[in-house]
Automatic annotation (TrEMBL):
The gene is ndk. It is an enzyme of class 2 (transferase). The keyword Nucleotide-binding applies. ATP binds at K11, F59, R87, T93, R104, N114. Its cofactor is Mg(2+). This is Nucleoside diphosphate kinase. GO terms for molecular function: nucleoside diphosphate kinase activity. Coiled coil: none annotated.
Length: 143
């Protein structure tokens, strides 16, 4: 299995709960390395652009409002099968349906405020990484 990169957001609810470290620790304990990381406050334009695929959905306005409600941590994670690995660690979109021991089961309370984002495929990972990071912000962690 080749080394892969995926994009992660620790969302405003998890930042507010002060569980950034606990979430990052799960990535690290499960073979994912952080190769880029920054905290930022998303603008409305940034959040709308990031979630453009959902713009026709009824929850879009609430989603953008939530994602701009406080700081987030955007990260690039690297490791074997990183996209799927991260989705497994995150758990289902609705925390009520998320498997025990997943990030969303442990730190999220509702589908609107569900602690983390993770890319759903290698193609979306590449697009999402480029949305937030320039090439020279991605560090070489192989050694
Ligand atoms: P994800 O890939 O597991 O994050 O889920 P999706 O790509 O389907 O949806 C993106 C984000 O939109 C989710 O993480 C939720 O924050 C939000 N979302 C999805 N479905 C709903 C919904 O039915 N209601 C609300 N309020 N938010 C939703
Ligand atoms: Mg998604």
């Amino acid at each position: 299995m080749a080394i892969e990169r995926t994009f992660s957001i620790i969302k405003p609810d998890a930042v507010a709960k002060n569980v950034i470290g606990e979430i990052v620790s799960r990535f690290e304990k499960n073979g994912l390395r952080i190769v880029a990381s920054k905290m930022l406050q998303l603008t409305q334009e940034q959040a709308e652009g990031f979630y453009a695929e959902h713009k026709e959905r009824g929850f879009f306005k609430d989603l953008v409002s939530f994602m701009t409600s406080g700081p987030v941590v955007v990260q690039v994670l690297e490791g074997e099968n990183a996209v799927l690995k991260n989705r497994e660690l995150m758990g289902a979109t609705n925390p009520k349906e998320a498997a025990a021991g997943t990030i969303r089961a442990d730190f999220a309370v509702s589908i609107d405020e569900n602690a983390v984002h993770g890319s759903d495929a290698p193609e979306s990972a590449a697009r999402e990484i480029a949305y937030f990071f320039s090439a020279n912000e991605l560090c070489d962690r192989i050694r």
